[in-house]
Task: structure prediction
Amino acid sequence: AQSVTQPDIHITVSEGASLELRCNYSYGATPYLFWYVQSPGQGLQLLLKYFSGDTLVQGIKGFEAEFKRSQSSFNLRKPSVHWSDAAEYFCATTSGTYKYIFGTGTRLKVLA
Amino acid sequence: DAGVIQSPRHEVTEMGQEVTLRCKPISGHDYLFWYRQTMMRGLELLIYFNNNVPIDDSGMPEDRFSAKMPNASFSTLKIQPSEPRDSAVYFCASSGIGGQGEQFFGPGTRLTVL
Result:
């Protein structure tokens, strides 16, 4: 069965530092992969998505993610974190249907 | 476009009462999803519709929960009777063919059952 693992429940970084949030998926074929961000009291907003093609995907707010089939990973990165990036981040996958499988989320704290 | 609209944003009720949550999807979207988010269980898909027809309701926790989509622009999630363990944030999301699976989420309804 498909699954998504986000191994880090909490991550704390200093403002201006680089960020990498981990996501591992379990699926035989090429999955559809997404990263969403949830700010406090808000719904989820799509940051970026991968379906095929270039394995490095650019998203909104300066985020990018790289699909690595050999590692079954789709890690989210940002070269320089801003205080406004503090939020919870969710990785999700689907096999091509509209039914998402979400990870448990990683809560990001940004230190001034 | 106004995005996905959910009402109410907050609901406080007493155990045993009926609760109705409402959702208006983005115009033109033909998929609608209901999720529940709790600290313990994270984001759970409860049910989703395609062209107003329920496709998968395997996530609906029990018979106390029901969802309807009478037309393309409106859906409800009803809990009757409500219990304290139903306290959560309930999200509605919509998606359209050609959107490559991207789901657009509403702001959620925070439900507290006392």
User: Anything to note?
Assistant: Chain A has no helices and twelve strands. The two ends of chain A are 41 Å apart (CA to CA). The interface with chain B takes residues 32, 34, 36, 41-46, 49, 51, 90, 94, 96, 98-100, 102-105 of chain A (CB under 8 Å).
